[in-house]
Every structure is written in C-alpha cells, then in structure tokens.
Amino acid sequence: MSDGSNDDRLGGDPDPEEEALLRFLSQFGITPGPDGRLDVEALMARMQSMMTAFTTQLAGFGPTDSDTGINWNFTKDIARKVTAGAGSDPSPTAAELAAIRSASELADLWLDEQIAFSPLTPPATAWSRADWVEHTFSTWQQLIRPVVGQLTHTLGGLLTSQSDDPAAAMMQPMIRTAAAGMFAAQVGQSLGSLALEAVSAGDIGLPLTPRPVVALLPTNLARFGEGLDIPADDVLLFLALRETARQRLFGAVGWLGPQLLALVEHYARGISIDPSALEQAIETQLSNAMTPAEIEQAGQAVAGSLFVPQVSEEQRQVLGRLETLLALVEGWVDEVVDQATRSRMPAATGLTEMLRRRRAAGGPAEAALRALVGLELRPRRTRDAANLWAATRAARGAAARDATWAHPDLIPTAAELDDPLGFAEQGHQPQAPDDLDAELAKLLDAEQNDD
Description:
Blueprint: E1 9-10, H1 16-26, E2 38-39, H2 40-59, H3 72-85, H4 94-112, E3 125-126, H5 129-161, H6 168-195, E4 215-216, H7 218-225, H8 232-252, H9 256-269, H10 275-286, H11 292-302, H12 313-341, H13 347-361, H14 364-373, H15 382-396, H16 398-403, H17 414-417, H18 420-426, H19 435-450
Parallel strand pairs: 3-4
Antiparallel strand pairs: 1-2
Helix pairs in contact: 3-5, 3-6, 4-8, 5-6, 5-9, 6-10, 6-11, 6-14, 8-12, 9-12, 9-19, 10-11, 12-15, 15-18
C-alpha cells in the first residue's frame, strides 16, 4: 500500500499490488469512488457485514454441515418452496389414503399370483409433494456428497490460482460460502422440480427411501391422469401395481438398492466441475447482496451448467452398468404388471406404452439427475429387458425368472439383452470380475461399515 496519511485508501497511481487488488475486487462490482480512491477499511467493514448478515440468515436454517459446507436445511427449504410455489400441496386426506391402501392391497393380491417376492410389512401410504422431499432427502444427500467433494476440489484450484492477489485471503471465506450456498440452492431447485412430477416413492427407478415403502402422491396422480380417457381408479390401480411390484423387488433383493446407489455414487465421484462456470456463478453471486433469496436465484440460474460435458471411459462403463440395471428393474416391473393385468385391466397396455414414451423422451427425473450429479441417464433398453424377462418366464417359469435376482452374478448383461432367447434358455454366463466390480465392492463395503 502507498505511504502517507491516506495509506488506508487506494488512489492516484497504484503500485502493482494495489492494481491486483482493484482488478480482483472489480470482478464483484467493487470499484473506487468518483475521487478514484477505495476506502479499504470501509471495504473490509462492508464485506464483514455481508458475511455476518448472510451467515446469520443461514443460521436460521440450523447448523451447516462441517464436512461439505452445505446447509442441508436451507437446501430442503428451497425444495419445499418450489413445491409450494407450483400450487396447492395439501396433506393427503383420509379418503385418499384409504383409496391408495385399497389399491395397494388389490395390487398385492394380483402380484401374489405372478411373483415370488412377499408383500411388504408396512401398509401403503399417501404423500404430499413436501412429504416426498422429506422422505427421500437423506438418500439425495448420500448421492450428492461426492459432487460436493468435486466442487470443493475445483474451488480450491480457483482460490490457489488467485493466491497472488492480496484480497484473496480476505475473500476466501465468502467465496467458499457463496459456492456452497449456490450449489445448495441448485440441489433444492432440482429436488423441488422432481417432487412436482413424482407419482410414487420409486418411480424414477432408484430406491430413494431408507426402507422399501409403497407411497403414492395423490396430487401428482391427479395430474398424471389429466387428459386420459381412462377412469381415475384404473390409473391409481395401475400405478399402485407398478410401485408395489418395484418395492417388493427392492425389499426382497437385498443387494439391488445398494448396488444402484453405489453406481450413481461411483459416477458422481468421477465428474468434473467446469471451473469457468463455477467462477462466473460465484462472481455473479458475490456482486449482489448475497441474501439467501438471491443465492436461491443464483442456484436456479446455474442449474446443470457446472458439469464438464465430457465423461471418462470409467464413467461410461458405470453409466452402461447403471442403465442396464435400471432397465432390468423397470423391464421386470413391466413384465409382471402385464401378467397381472392382462385379463383384468384393458387400459394397462395403453398406460404402459405411455410410460415407455415418457421414459424415451426424458423428463424431470432425467433433468434432475443431470443437475444433481451430472448424470445423463436414460434407460433406453427397458422394452428389451421386459422381453428378456417374458422369454425367461416362458422358457423356465416365473420362479426361475425371479430367482435370477438372487445374486448380482446371475443378472443379465447388456450383451445378453441382445439375445433374450439365449438368456431364457441358459441363464447368465459368468464372466471374470473386472476393476469396476472391485471398486463397487469397496464402495458397498464402506457403506456397510458406516451403517
């Protein structure tokens, strides 16, 4: 800094250190006044005030996670604001709960004739959109933590690159807080958007609850059925059949849910954050007052833009495994629901085709996964999987079809989806474990030890 009575102000002909400071601060809209001077003490006081005000407001949501820097309650609050902002989200009525339980009980009776897996012990339940956020949130935290790790790594690189700036040390706490807040807002926006579309606890194919549960959302069920020339009771029963079958599968096949989540986590650990997109998002955010409301807007603005589009070869392998396993789950659900409804519900065929078109076109679930963990997921081979399961049932019976889920080594591969008749006759042909199998085994072991 310059010597003299005004050594707490920058002005005149700044030296290189002062120029670096002015250049750094100008990124955030902080420039000298009309007299060409910048009052450093006032600047420090302003930044301290901003930081104090922001942390005080965030404190209203409870403590921030020390491991990630994310305030999860702030994240959840944004998700619930999204659901509330989309219209009425009433708690399910007693009549709606009774209708869902009745449909689930009938679904269990029909499925008992088709599958080997026992019904779940907890009765079916009804959720509002806010309930969906609440009950699935812990699983989303688990899936998002690897992304936060990559965000922290990228942010560390940005801060290191600015280490020559004299203002870097002063700004680092604000930058870290801004980045964490912006990503938390992005997560909240994505979860809220997904809650507007989900018709059940597991309709995106992932096990999102700590324990399998049949849960349907009456508000979203009503939206799903709008414009369909199908009785609402048929729509409810059809979706209850799908959710009941899916959750019975998750409940009976202990390795399946952890394997699906491990694949998502493994993919997320390998993503790359775009440093320029992160830097631009932080600069935009810090140039404002950095209130929680403005961070929420920033998170919405950058949703889905932080991830580098290229994926590694390892990620492509993980994605292939994940898409195949999800296709096998949804294809199995298609197959058993088709068998259960074939002679009982003529509308089921049209509803199944509608769901297939919805999957093929992508939708909110795909957009949410892309924004949350950078995952470009679209299980394109669900129809192939349904054909494979149907062929297996025809060749060896429903019990043999369902016994395939007994161990992950018995599950069809992507190549076997190309030859459903061969798999139906011979079953899975074992292959030697590869490096990805070893990595997934480590991840699953670590999660079991944490539990």
